[in-house]
Amino acid sequence: MTIGKIIDGKAFAATLRDTVGEGVAGFVEATGRKPGLAVVLVGEDPASSVYVRSKGKMTVAAGMESFEFKRPDSIGAEDLLDLIEELNHDERIDGILVQLPLPGHIDEAVVIGAIDPAKDVDGFHVVNSGKLATGQEALVPCTPLGCIMLLKDELGDLSGLEAVVVGRSNIVGKPMAALLLAESCTVTIAHSRTRDLASVVHRADIVVAAVGRAEMVKGEWIKPGATVIDVGINRVTDTEDGKARIVGDVATAEALAHVRAITPVPGGVGPMTIAVLLRNTLVAAHARAGLGKPEGL
Ligand SMILES: Nc1nc2c(c(=O)[nH]1)N[C@@H](CN(C=O)c1ccc(C(=O)N[C@@H](CCC(=O)O)C(=O)O)cc1)CN2
Ligand SMILES: [Mg+2]
């Protein structure tokens, strides 16, 4: 039995962050200022707090300016919209990101819709998703773009390959499908209601699992030689010591016997998200400074 390759997303992300850092140095030389990223965190969700802290640290490590805005759970939508309006007009800030999920009483679509699309480094604004869907230059969501980078690194040209995306979220599934289509893949979006998911997945040369259900995609579903990108981050407590561990949406141990390559959880797609966020911030800064696209990114 041959065992597939484990794609080292952590190492790839570190290299990408270094490349962004070099680009930032060039930007500073050209403009005399640092690119700036504003991150807005509402409430105290522990995972979100960890991600936001990590974003701040990595922004600074790449040579950019980090601005953090923490607001209580109880904030009203109007106050949040006022903050975003302020950030839209702040010349030091090239990228604005509102950490998701937001508390239930705030409409995420309204908040994201208030961000200046030129500063929307998450690529969630409808102007950017619309541009992506119609093949125009756009700021593209970080996680799916990170997945495409890993896929191209592993497979080279993706043209003509059969891709199945499991999951239809606005953050991952839909933009992922649009990006795969832009690479000339034949794309299927499957989801929790798809009939006979096993046989749909079995068609795929590329499987992207982003449903948020622990180890839902089974090893025997995978076509021999397929490449699997596992976007899931699910906390499960199933060991005797009662400690939580993180698993993906794919049953990785089983899948390894079938795949050409697979991303692990943790250490696969996850680290790419923040590395691509830094890349997007530099891209936004370049565009705002009238410098065109940064080289090599
Ligand atoms: N505004 C946004 N909100 C959210 C996004 C996003 O891209 N923009 N994505 C996720 C959270 N996220 C970043 O915000 C994120 C998730 C996971 C990782 C990561 O490095 N994961 C590690 C494991 C982490 C762990 O132990 O918990 C891995 O997979 O190896 C980074 C960033 C939702 N919200
Ligand atoms: Mg879904």
TrEMBL record:
Reactions this protein catalyses: (6R)-5,10-methenyltetrahydrofolate + H2O = (6R)-10-formyltetrahydrofolate + H(+); (6R)-5,10-methylene-5,6,7,8-tetrahydrofolate + NADP(+) = (6R)-5,10-methenyltetrahydrofolate + NADPH
A molecular function GO annotation: methylenetetrahydrofolate dehydrogenase (NADP+) activity
GO BP, one annotated term: purine nucleotide biosynthetic process
Taxonomy, superkingdom: Bacteria
Metabolic or biological pathway: One-carbon metabolism; tetrahydrofolate interconversion
Record key words, sorted: Amino-acid biosynthesis, Histidine biosynthesis, Hydrolase, Methionine biosynthesis, Multifunctional enzyme, NADP, One-carbon metabolism, Oxidoreductase, Purine biosynthesis
Domain Tetrahydrofolate dehydrogenase/cyclohydrolase NAD(P)-binding: start-end pairs: 141-287
InterPro entries: Aminoacid_DH-like_N_sf (IPR046346), NAD(P)-bd_dom_sf (IPR036291), THF_DH/CycHdrlase (IPR000672), THF_DH/CycHdrlase_cat_dom (IPR020630), THF_DH/CycHdrlase_CS (IPR020867), THF_DH/CycHdrlase_NAD-bd_dom (IPR020631)
Residues the entry annotates as binding NADP(+): G167, R168, S169, I233
One GO location term (cellular component): cytosol
Enzyme Commission (EC) number: 1.5.1.5, 3.5.4.9
Signal peptide: none
Stretches assigned to the Tetrahydrofolate dehydrogenase/cyclohydrolase catalytic domain: 7-122
PANTHER family, per the entry: C-1-TETRAHYDROFOLATE SYNTHASE, CYTOPLASMIC (PTHR48099:SF5), C-1-TETRAHYDROFOLATE SYNTHASE, CYTOPLASMIC-RELATED (PTHR48099)
Subunit record text: Homodimer.
Family that this chain belongs to: Belongs to the tetrahydrofolate dehydrogenase/cyclohydrolase family.
Function: Catalyzes the oxidation of 5,10-methylenetetrahydrofolate to 5,10-methenyltetrahydrofolate and then the hydrolysis of 5,10-methenyltetrahydrofolate to 10-formyltetrahydrofolate.
Annotated protein name in UniProt: Bifunctional protein FolD
Organism annotation: Sphingobium cupriresistens LL01
